[in-house]
Description:
With 239 residues, this protein is an alpha/beta fold. The protein has helices spanning 2-15, 68-87, 108-129, 158-168, 201-214, and strands at residues 20-27, 30-37, 41-47, 97-103, 149-153, 175-177, 194-196. It is globular, with a radius of gyration of 20 Å. The structure holds 2-acetamido-2-deoxy-beta-D-glucopyranose (2 copies). It is found in: Cell membrane.
Amino acid sequence: MSIFLLLVILLSEEIGLVNFSFLVGAQANERRVVAHVTGDIIIGALFSVHHQPPADKVHERKCGVIREQYGIQRVEAMLHTLDRINSDPKILPNITLGCEIRDSCWHSAVALEQSIEFIRDSLVSSEEEEGLVRCTDSATTPVRVKKPIVGVIGPGSSSVAIQVQNLLQLFNIPQIAYSATSMDLSDKTLYKYFMRVVPSDAQQARAMVDIVKRYNWTYVSAIHTEGKLYKNQDILDIV
Ligand SMILES: *[C@@H]1O[C@H](CO)[C@@H](O)[C@H](O)[C@H]1NC(C)=O
Ligand SMILES: *[C@@H]1O[C@H](CO)[C@@H](O)[C@H](O)[C@H]1NC(C)=O
């Protein structure tokens, strides 16, 4: 957690003029850091900044240790990409992209909890537009409502992406995953608001068969994983 906090502070200095903020929300049983960049259009993102909860901490959704490559680097990549797009006058002129990055911890329960936060913000904003939100105390200044997200990027794991999609599609929020390769997600009747930027496992299998044929291999061993991750085995992250 502390490394990530430090990173967020460093990034906020680097970004300078961009209104960049982070907040530590006391949600559920664990405090999760949320990175928020203001803009005209807000894109939600779920990255696995921490490992999934260890077996004895699953019930309290307490995540594991920091993941640098699969978490922090992806957060940085997203912030960098937004900076590049926003500073280029040819891409989206006069529109500033913002984002809200949340931690999925490579775990369905945490990812769903964070997706609920995305949805809640969307619902509150639409109620505000319809004038349904009123201040109970006229003396207090009205709370500035966050802009709703236009879509969600991530999460990384197929099984977690399926859970998140089941929730997001109820609220018509599009989802684009960057590394979920499960063939199940190709079913548009089940996962209506899901898209991905990587080919499904079916394509990978076809490519593997082509390689086997091309080199006339007569014997191939296949090792299967259930998609579960244990400890720090980043190598199994190819889902
Ligand atoms: C962007 O804003 C500037 C200044 O308001 C305006 O001159 C320009 O036409 C706008 N560009 C687009 C693509 O809307
Ligand atoms: C595979 O087998 C075919 C047919 O026997 C042969 O023409 C080809 O050169 C072989 N390829 C390799 C990489 O050995």
